[in-house]
Design a protein that fits this description.
This protein is of the alpha+beta class. About 45% of the residues lie in helices and about 15% in strands. It has a seven-stranded mixed sheet, with helices on both faces. Strand 7 and strand 8 form a beta hairpin.
Length: about 575
């Protein structure tokens, strides 16, 4: 049973090959911009600069053809870069040394517009003026304010998932070999980081694109949560695009726009960003449920708001039947948060007083596995899983900070349950099934450890650690996640839902300490209805974890040895 997928590099090469076989530019653009259907077309096209967009719109309108003899043909050249961005190189120019960029072909015009060159120059000038306006404004700021922005950007980047975005032709990323920003590949202050070079250079000597990147990314990470920067992954981060994005967010939040008339472009972005952050925080405090749609190929993420509250009626009946059996009474569909907490507290107490199922150390662990297995069957998932700390007492503030900082991945668990059809795909090869499930579990155990300092508010402790990510705060729905992440490629994590969960410990809410994840290796992607159901399930699951924590229950199963032993029988 092979779960490994080809991965991003292979997909880029395959898309380039298919695009080269097209006779019309319009067809080639659609394939290249979407990586052959993997990326939403509006996202792929948003990676184009202003001049490039104008070129292609005219080419498509004139039904321009594509000549694949790029070595000898004259005309505008189409490229697909290693990062998956479609590029247009004007006639008479040739691209710089972009290692690995694939030439798709040159444009063949039936009637080349005479104004094409002038329109390109005008579009490039408009884009250049935007960048230069931001650059001039950045140059008016005191060095201390500029450095504070660089520090804030660096802090956000090293504590969040990868970014890959564009300012004009420049790519800014902290993903693998594309890295020129701090993150997993480059440490803060590393020589190869753009931010390091900018810190050592007076602002007037910066490139206009770099000034634009700093101003726009700082506005983004200040407009909500720091991970907002991921909403520009795979697209152009231009001041006008960002300004419209923030205005759109304000409209979605139901708040009036602040008056930015007469302000420099950078100051206007700052004002919009602050207003956006305040409006969003007010909605969250009022109970609004936000979620994110994630395209794993482009890393593009987009915040959405659920139009209606999630209700218990959206729970799968198979799950409520399990809960009723475990609790000894019907599930309370009309329950509020307190009533549900009372119900699940009684459920957990009743479960732990009962017999221990075969293959588990405690009855509680057996119930967790059955819970996730039931969800997998009900929602046609290959795998459903949930992670958390093995022992919440190890997180209490009474313990010395250095002892809490020494917690390792072995101090956390992830219960992974496979759906029946997924298990059957492995046939008699139970060892391969155990390997796959333990690989999912190991990665999720690492995630709990990685989020822990932020979940527990330890990020500023002197005896703490700096290797942490912001704890997730909203559900998300991801498609094509088996492209960049090594583990996702190796074990086929293609379509996924994640619902981060928190509990109250020592009187404070601890976000992202637990979660619920649903996964498919192929087939249909998840839809919003699935995410709503998963969110309802997660809300019930969180009360189960709260009850277990209040009762000081520990979890010892679900390590690699457990998966091997459990699935070998």
């Amino acid at each position: 049973m092979l779960l490994k997928t080809p991965g991003f590099d292979t997909q880029v090469k395959a898309a380039a090959e298919r695009a080269r076989g097209c006779g019309l530019v319009a067809d080639a653009v659609r394939i290249a911009a979407t990586l052959d259907g993997m990326i939403p077309e509006q996202v792929g096209r948003a990676a184009l600069g202003l001049g490039e967009r104008m070129y292609l719109e005219l080419a498509e309108a004139h039904a321009a053809g594509l000549d694949t003899a790029t070595d000898t043909a004259e005309g505008e050249l189409l490229l697909l870069t290693e990062t998956g961005r479609l590029r247009v190189v004007p006639a008479g120019e040739r691209p710089g040394p972009e290692a690995g960029a694939a030439a798709l072909g040159t444009l063949k015009w039936q009637a080349r517009p005479e104004s094409l060159g002038r329109l390109w120059d005008l579009a490039e000038e408009v884009q250049r003026l935007q960048f230069e306006e931001i650059h001039r404004w950045m140059a008016t700021l005191e060095p201390a304010r500029v450095h504070a922005r660089l520090d804030a950007i660096s802090h956000a980047l090293v504590h969040m998932a990868p970014v890959m975005l564009y300012v004009g032709e420049r790519c800014y990323s902290n993903l693998g070999r594309f890295s020129n920003l701090p993150g997993r590949s480059l440490a803060p202050g590393a020589e190869g980081s753009v931010l390091t070079a900018l810190r050592d250079t007076p602002v007037p000597r910066w490139k206009a694109e770099d000034a634009t990147f700093v101003a726009c990314v700082h506005a983004l990470i200040s407009s909500g949560s720091p991970v907002r920067a991921e909403e520009f992954n795979g697209i152009q981060l231009a001041p006008d695009v960002l300004r419209e994005f923030l205005r759109e967010r304000m409209a979605a939040y139901g708040e009036p726009l602040p008056d930015t008339r007469g302000l420099p472009a950078g100051a206007a972005l700052d004002l919009l960003s602050g207003a956006c952050a305040r409006a969003r925080a007010a909605l969250v405090a009022d109970g609004a449920v936000f979620y994110r749609e994630i395209n794993g190929a482009s890393l593009h993420k987009r915040e959405r708001r659920m139009a209606e509250p999630v209700t218990w009626a959206e729970l799968p009946p198979e799950l409520t039947a399990l809960l009723a059996e475990a609790a000894g009474q019907p599930f309370p569909y009309a329950a509020g948060p307190e009533e549900l907490g009372t119900y699940t507290r009684g459920l957990v107490e009743r479960v732990t007083a009962g017999p221990v199922p075969a293959g588990f150390t405690t009855a509680y662990e057996g119930f967790l596995h059955r819970f996730f297995e039931t969800v997998a069957e009900a929602l046609d998932c290959d795998v459903v899983m949930g992670r958390g700390p093995k022992d919440v007492l190890a997180l209490h503030s009474a313990l010395p900070a250095e002892r809490r900082a020494a917690l390792a991945t072995r101090d956390f668990y992830c219960c992974v349950a496979a759906g029946r059809s997924f298990r059957e795909r492995f046939g008699e090869n139970r060892a391969a099934l155990a390997t796959a499930l333990s690989a999912y579990s190991a990665r999720m155990r690492y995630n709990t450890w990685h989020y822990l300092p932020h979940s527990m508010s330890w990020t500023n402790e002197e005896q703490g650690r700096d290797d942490w990510f912001f704890a997730p705060g909203m559900p998300d729905i991801t498609n094509w996640s088996d492209q960049h992440h090594t583990g996702h490629v190796a074990f086929g994590v293609r379509h996924a839902l994640r619902v981060p969960l928190g509990i109250v410990l020592e009187g404070r809410y601890r976000p992202g300490l637990y979660d619920l994840r649903l996964m498919r290796t192929d087939g249909d992607p998840f839809e919003l209805a699935h995410l709503r159901t998963a969110t309802a399930i997660g809300q019930v699951q969180a009360t189960v974890h709260q009850a277990a924590a209040d009762l000081n229950l520990t979890v010892g199963d679900f390590d690699n040895a457990w998966y091997r032993d459990f699935h070998a029988s």
